[in-house]
Amino acid sequence: MPTHTRAPGGALDTNPLLADYRRAAALLGITPGALRDLCYRGRGPVQTKIGRRTLFAVADLHAFVAAHRSPLPQQPTTAEQPRRRRGRPTIAEMMAQLPQGDE
Fold first, then answer.
1. Are 56 and 19 contacting, i.e. CB atoms less than 8 angstroms apart?
2. Per-residue pLDDT tens for 35-85?
3. Which of 19, 59, 78, 102 is packed most tightly, with the most Cβ within 10 A?
4. Which residues of 13-43 are buried (b: 16+ CB within 10 A; e: fewer)?
5. DSSP per position, 1-20
């Protein structure tokens, strides 16, 4: 499918209303196969069927992206949560975790 269509005045319309699988996948930044899989599982954008063709409205693609955006996670400051070390704790760390007896 060409990436442009003819407008009513005969001029080329470079911003079509509907997109096929290839163009919709390119707009979303995924492969056409991944888009087909999302649609098959019912988690993809809204589809428009015209005859045998499956098309996607560009506005629906924008809504799909907006619905799947998540806010950036808050990074804990180093004062709130010390960095965890890998491996076994040292003897000094194990001694610090022991309950202190009344002396």
1. yes
2. 999 999 999 999 999 999 999 999 999 999 999 888 877 766 656 666 677
3. 19
4. eeebebbebebbbebbeeeeeebeebbeeee
5. --S-EE-TTS-EESS-SEE-
Provide the token pair at 43: 């988690």
Cα–Cα dist 18/64, whole Å:
14
Distance CA 19, CA 26 (A): 10
Confirm if 23 and 5 have CB atoms less than 8 A apart: no
Distance CA 103, CA 85 (A): 32
Interatomic CA distance for residues 47 and 57, integer angstroms: 8
Structure tokens at 102: 């009344």
Say how many C-beta atoms besides its own lie within 10 A of residue 99's C-beta.
4
